[in-house]
Design goal:
- The protein is built from 19 helices and nine strands.
- By secondary structure, the chain is an alpha/beta fold.
- It has three domains: 170 residues, Rossmann fold (3-Layer(aba) Sandwich); 251 residues, Orthogonal Bundle (N-(1-d-carboxylethyl)-l-norvaline Dehydrogenase, domain 2); 33 residues, Single alpha-helices involved in coiled-coils or other helix-helix interfaces.
- The strands form two sheets. Strands 3-2-1-4-5-6-7 form a seven-stranded mixed sheet, with helices on both faces. Strands 8-9 form a two-stranded antiparallel sheet.
- It is globular, with a radius of gyration of 25 Å.
């Protein structure tokens, strides 16, 4: 009997890989799976049910059962492991085969791998996937970049397994080269910023009003029924009601206040600095996570460093309404920073990104999905060349009408000694962007004074140097 050949291959049968594999099978695709941990292959075989799934014991067997030209998906940890898998595959695969890296690889690694495999006419695609375990199983947002030819071959499958908004798949061809992984990096940076802002709302409400977890649940649930409607607000409301199995306390109160990160937010900050594009809300979020990790030092410092006495805000609902507007303002400025970086990076790296298409696929499946994104999509649909989201008439009106609240929140936080780096960075970005004059001329003068770095003038073009009145 002739052996059945399978439509797709999946290397990496961890949580994400396994769930995405089952998602593909739900949509009528047959899939062969492989993992270096053979116990995961055995688990796949046992749990496959009526699905057309093949669990391979080794790479050669895995490749032998795939239809040609092959389409192979990788969901393995980013970094050196991806290169090891490529080296294992390379001698055994054929020209026109496609390898899709669906992990969180750094975009520069993706560019290197595309160039390396192109020498043998093998397509390598960087495919950003967002949505966590549930998204992978039932519909993620997918950000594929690389060869347009390769994308068109796998597009029907990606569209089938992706999340849907109004029957529109949350996947699109992102662009050339490493664009898919770049856009996923920006997505994750925005995610860092939004999570930090929500955490600051939590601390403000908790410390300034003495609010209970049950009341926090109600407030966040109400927020999720309004302009702040989003996945992150929704899950935050649910977190506050979760009881701890070990103590019967609320679980949120038993979790150590030391956050972790895998690096994608940091990558965005680093790249933005390389390109000299400001993303202060994301920078602040990364730094806040770093500071939280100094738990022992913070506990020690809390005994020595003094701040103001906390003045409780008695009207919890009134304070929640102020914070709601401040958060809405800051969410907009955070998206503005990420999209601005994406737009300018597209020019630098020749990605040819379409902001509307990117925002469109973020509306469903992914971690940063929010009702606000539909407003943003419409803005870019009307003006694809918009330099910054905040310049849109509709968006600027939203910012103008909520800026008073973010200023109030920051003042209250400062007066009570509560750190709000996310809110501060969001407002500083807004205030800096809207100012027609900034004190940077003094910076130019200082640089020319001590290092003869030259300066530019307001009344004529060119670079100038002066002999300053030096007394030293």
């Amino acid at each position: 009997m002739e052996q059945q050949l399978y439509d797709y291959g999946m290397i990496g049968l961890g949580t994400m890989g396994l769930n995405l594999l089952y998602n593909m099978c739900d949509h009528g695709y047959s899939v062969a799976g492989f993992d270096s941990d053979i116990s995961k292959v055995e688990n796949l075989k046992k749990s496959k049910g009526d699905y057309q799934i093949y669990g391979a014991q080794n790479i050669k067997e895995f490749l032998d059962v795939l239809k040609k030209p092959r389409a192979i998906m990788l969901l393995v940890p980013a970094g050196h492991i991806v290169d090891l898998v490529i080296e294992e595959l390379k001698p055994l695969i054929s020209p026109s085969d496609i390898i899709m890296d669906c992990g969180n690889s750094h975009f520069t690694d993706t560019d290197r791998r595309i160039e390396y495999l192109a020498k043998d006419n093998i397509h390598f695609m960087g495919v950003g996937v967002s949505g966590g375990e549930s998204g992978a199983r039932y519909g993620p947002s997918i950000m594929p970049g690389g060869s347009k030819e390769a994308y068109e071959r796998v597009a029907p499958m990606l569209e089938a397994v992706s999340a849907k908004i109004k029957n529109e798949p949350c996947v699109t061809y992102i662009g050339r080269g490493s664009s898919g992984h770049y856009v996923k990096m920006v997505h994750n940076g925005i995610e860092y910023g939004l999570m930090q802002l929500i955490a600051e709302c939590y601390q403000l409400l908790k410390e300034i009003t003495g609010i209970s977890n049950e009341e926090l649940h109600v407030i966040f649930s109400n927020w999720n029924n309004g302009p702040l409607q989003s996945y992150l607000i929704e899950i935050t409301s649910l977190i506050f009601t979760q009881k701890d199995d070990l103590t019967q306390n609320f679980l949120i109160d038993m979790i150590l206040d030391s956050a972790h990160q895998k690096g994608t937010g940091k990558w965005m900050s680093q790249n933005a600095m390389d390109l000299q594009i400001p993303v202060p809300a994301i920078d602040a979020a990364v730094s806040a996570r770093d500071l939280s990790a100094f738990k022992n030092e913070r506990v020690s410092a809390s005994q020595k460093l003094k701040g103001p006495v906390t003045n409780l805000f008695n009207n919890k609902n009134e304070f929640a309404k102020i914070i709601e507007q401040a958060l809405y303002f800051s969410m907009i400025t955070t998206f503005s920073q990420g999209i601005s970086l994406m737009r300018l990076a597209s020019i630098e790296y020749k990605y040819d990104l379409n902001p509307e298409e990117v925002v469109k696929i973020w509306r469903g499946g992914c971690i940063i999905r929010a009702s606000l994104l539909e407003n943003i999509r419409l803005v870019f649909q009307q003006n694809p060349e918009l330099q910054n989201l905040m310049e849109s008439g509709e968006i600027s009106e939203k910012l103008n009408s909520s800026q008073e609240e973010v200023r109030k929140v920051i003042k209250i936080a400062v007066d009570n000694g509560i750190p709000v780096p996310g809110f501060m960075a969001s407002l500083s970005y807004y205030d800096g962007y809207r100012k027609g004059w900034l004190p940077s001329g003094l910076l130019q003068a200082q640089r020319d004074f001590f290092g003869a770095h030259t300066y530019q003038r307001i009344d004529r073009k060119g670079n100038f140097h002066s002999q300053w009145n030096q007394k030293i």
